[in-house]
Here is the input.
Amino acid sequence: MSGEFELIRRHFTRTAPAGMLGVGDDCALLSPSADATAVSTDLLVEGRHFFPDVDPRALGHKSLAVNLSDLAAMGAKPTAFVLGLALPLPRVDDAWLSAFAAGLFALADAYGCPLVGGDTTRSDTGTTLSITIFGSVPAQAALRRSGARPGDDIWVSGTLGDADLALRLLLGERDVPVADRAAVLAATRGALEWPEPRVALGLALRGLASAAIDISDGLLQDLGHVLAASGCGARLCADDVPVSPAVAALPAPWRRRCALGGGDAYELCFTAPAEARARVAEAAARAGVAATRIGAVDAGPGLRVVDAGGMPVPDLPRAGFDHFPMPVDPAAGSLPETS
Amino acid sequence: MSGEFELIRRHFTRTAPAGMLGVGDDCALLSPSADATAVSTDLLVEGRHFFPDVDPRALGHKSLAVNLSDLAAMGAKPTAFVLGLALPLPRVDDAWLSAFAAGLFALADAYGCPLVGGDTTRSDTGTTLSITIFGSVPAQAALRRSGARPGDDIWVSGTLGDADLALRLLLGERDVPVADRAAVLAATRGALEWPEPRVALGLALRGLASAAIDISDGLLQDLGHVLAASGCGARLCADDVPVSPAVAALPAPWRRRCALGGGDAYELCFTAPAEARARVAEAAARAGVAATRIGAVDAGPGLRVVDAGGMPVPDLPRAGFDHFPMPVDPAAGSLPETS
Here is the structure.
């Protein structure tokens, strides 16, 4: 009995659901399905996506939550997931792994999404997590990025900006204009570390939303993907974007920077025909989350962001988070379409 | 247009096959299937699984090959895969990425296994690759680890030990008893860097093999998993394990160390009823690979390794590769069952 296998057995082996073959063979087996299988994969890298001293329970939660969020954006029902763990020796620690597993499995159990396979390896540098998640959705009902049409409303769930604000405070950015940093961090940190994936909303939007995406890199950048895939433009009212009291208390440029440009929100941004407004509101209520109209799709070009008075917003945040930044054409009040 | 998206577009975006939604949405969509979906995931970490100066084309090949090998061990037909890339800035380089993509896609095309999604992120340390692969197999035909029965033959495909020998030479181990290191490395390096997954053999063994596994951690350790899952023991003849001329030229203890303990072989080890010998030989011939009988399953306990004269082998290699080694009970001539 070796250390690696014992460690996997102790923390990550569970009985696979009926019809599935789980951890402990060369492959997991997912049951045949009449629906399409939605697949999403995410890497989480220490120092990029989480701090070295992260609460392992929160890390377990968030690594699965960001993948569930991708299923939500597709209108898919979670089925199962596989986990890759590259661990430096200090992480091969019962307390750390058991807290990580507790956070991971609490969310997995809440969404009926079992762990069915994985890979564990040593890393000589930091911790890297890889999760690939599976969901089921009738192919015709899947919410794609490409379905937005001129005239559609643009909606967003929940509030935006808290995770970005919390991250700036944790990173020690000195110029963030808040008086009581500890109080603001306490109010916003949950959004960064314990995001709640909008799976129920995604399911409720089947047949209703024309396009959807989850906000991982920032509203402007992610909405830009929807518009590019749909071949449309949009007009977005910056002051209609819903924010928490903590973000609302910021000066306008900072408020917009966090709400429009901030990543890690894991809310859904979606489009729907204007005549479906009442049904969208009902779907959101059924899913237990707020949904707010923030703009409208048009024939374009590009994404035009205006303030409450209809004037172009001059100090737009950069186009979201980019892991490999390259020079971007700076066009005040307008973003180039991504593709 | 940002650097990350441009980089993905340039090197990794291809048109998804009919019925699949590929790179460029929140999830990929795999078509409904009457068969079960076999899923396997692997992490490859720089410094653990490949050298920093690895040929990127070989790395692209090998990262997919090790996953195809898991499908082969299950008797599954490759369907599609997703790729996670955590890259330090020096790797965000057109020449490196295009060579990596060339090696990856050449193998993907050869096996009809398209890339349908992924995730790219920056790493501040080394390169980490994550691949999750999908295959299809009728659930009843899947080759599991748990099907071996007393009386079954134990078989292995190809030859074992070359990859381990090449790795020892590349690591500069000074005590490897070879006269001409360069010549031996030239003869064995291909097995380490360009493994050929035994997908055709896995398919040919459906309905024929009682259990199968691919040899990634070493024959003794991987066969141990089959025996543990099947609740059996086995007697294995060390001198029947097929080796290349380079490994055959080593002194016996070294030959056994490489062939029985060496990882990264990506050959199949499988069991089949004795009465199926002729059909196994035909299946291997059809798949274009040698298959050699190396022992027999029995009621146990444990795995007993003997030499050509039937005597216990005294200097068994350690039980394969373990990423998190812990003290192992040293039982000469016998390995504890893994679980």
User: Anything to note?
Assistant: The first helix of chain B runs from residue 3 to 12. Chain B touches chain A through 82 residues (CB under 8 Å). Chain B has two domains: 3-141, 145-335. Residues 169 and 253 of chain B are 17 Å apart (CA to CA).
